[in-house]
Amino acid sequence: GGSSAGSGAAVAAGMVPLALGTDTGGSVRVPAALCGVVGFKPTHGRVSARGVFPLAPSIEDVGVLANSVEDAQAFMQAVSGGAIGAYADAADPGLAAPRMMWVPNAPFAIDEAAVTARVRAAAEGFGGELVDGAEVTRHARALQAALGAIQRSEAYAVHAERVEDEPGKFDPEVLERLRASRPVQGWEYVRARNTREQLRGVFADLFERVDVLALPAVAITAPALQQRSVAGPGSAAVRETLLGLTNPWNLLGLPAIALPAGFVDGLPVALQLVAAEGADARLLALAARHWRRP
User: Fold this and answer.
1) What are the DSSP calls for 86-145, one per residue?
2) Which residues of the chain have pLDDT under 70?
3) CB-CB neighbours of 166 under 10 Å
4) What is the DSSP letter of 237?
5) Residue 95: which of 292, 293, 283, 294 has the closest Cα?
6) Residue 173: Cβ-neighbour burial (10 angstroms; 0-12, 13-18, 19+)
């Protein structure tokens, strides 16, 4: 996530018009949200990962940070080799008045009232129906458990030899997380993949009823450097708080976009929209039609 964080700042500062990033749990959308730029993660596999040194291949995607949805659209069409094309159905009623489901933060992440209120107001500005998404939270434990087993197992499989032979080349916190991944058992990984397939079916059915899920991209504003915990309405670790609202969609391979939604205490916050598998072009078209920079 460090390189994507730097890319987000560079885009926000106007140093570059857009930047490439990889998103394994939110490392495109989170820095985009905290820097006040657009961040998009495609459906898993829509963009080639050739040349990417992976962390967890089955949940990792190549995405983009940009100053506008239109720039993100154009870039994703190019980098996907046309797999993410322009959305052709201009008469789609879901574009004019999207059916949106508001997903509560808890238990995915803490709820900072000012951040949540500002982001929800941005979602309401899309002018469509905004229904309660408490049903999504019923799957939170299964999503988090499956994600944890898959990410840890795949990350250790990629880095096992380097962890053992060249530990000094890793950041200490990264090394600690990789070493903690070693005990994941094969049966846990297989069970997690089976759970993922079951959940993909559940969410495919959900997207028959709504066009997008809506929620904050990040539950808090940008933390201070080296800050490791978040105080307030329930203490939580910074890393888990930053990723809690983005990483479920990596597990399911769904397209998701972070859109600047204004400021809280002078710091950017962002609305995240999540769409059905394969609905990348439609999601980008919907965002381009309704989003305006605050």
Assistant:
1) ----TT-HHHHS-EEEEPP-TTTS---HHHHHHHHHHHHTT-SEEEE-HHHHTTHHHHHH
2) 1-5, 13, 231-235
3) 10
4) E
5) 283
6) exposed
